[in-house]
Amino acid sequence: MRRCAGFTLIEMIMVIIITGIIATVLAGVIKRPIDGYLDLTRRAELVDAADSALRLIARDIRRALPNSVRVDSTGPSLEMINTVDAVRYRLGPPGNQSKRLRFNPDDDEFNTIGEFTNLTPPVTSSTDYRLVIYNLGISGASAYENANVITPAATQVTITDDGTSDHIALSSAFQFAFESPRQRLYVVDASPVSYICDTANETLRRYASYSIGSTQPSGSSVVVTKHLTACSISYDAGSTGQAALVTLSLTLSDGGESVTMLHQVRVDNVP
């Protein structure tokens, strides 16, 4: 007759103690790579978020009306007027006055030299677009002043096909204050675009759907990125022979991890 073999109480206690020691050691060994992986994932997410935000801002800057980029470093904030399309206006022949843009007196219709690239006629009686000629971004020649270089907000713009060129008609005559040396005409959105850093709420927001004006009024906004803990925006207007430069720096932080990304965007300000 065989006796049943088993663990004694002492043996069972020893097994529990040894198992606990092994588990503690293994937990410490395994925890480090897991924490490292989680930290790496968090950093990668922050880098991706910052990079996406900077790319979005850069895209808008590159489409900005020349000399419309402006920066308020106290916010900091960045604003610009979006260019929809550009073309050269007809100033010389043919003799038909309706096909030439007159600067004195005012004018309500004229032709382009060539055709628009992005806009497809007909564009019928739209106040979504405004026309700009020779915006210099200075007093007396700034689109933000809603005078001299930009058609009024209430003026409707109609664009029709006229063979090898396009015909532009305004609902009311307007006198552009300055001729462009290269006869450049810009069609812009009636609503500018702004980016405002709000480090108090850790967000970068994009504002739109507000009217062009000397000051930035409030408008509808969307969150571009979260976890924003530091932000700087600077603008170097450049010179006659050198393009302007916007420098952007975003710092995103989350869960003890922090990343800072710097991006510079060249701005063509030839009006």
TrEMBL record:
Pfam families: N_methyl. Coiled coil: none annotated. It comes from the Bacteria. Keywords: Membrane, Transmembrane, Transmembrane helix. The chain crosses the membrane at residues 12-30. NCBIfam families: IV_pilin_GFxxxE. This is Pilus assembly protein MshO. It comes from Solemya pervernicosa gill symbiont. The lineage of its organism: Bacteria, Pseudomonadati, Pseudomonadota, Gammaproteobacteria, sulfur-oxidizing symbionts.
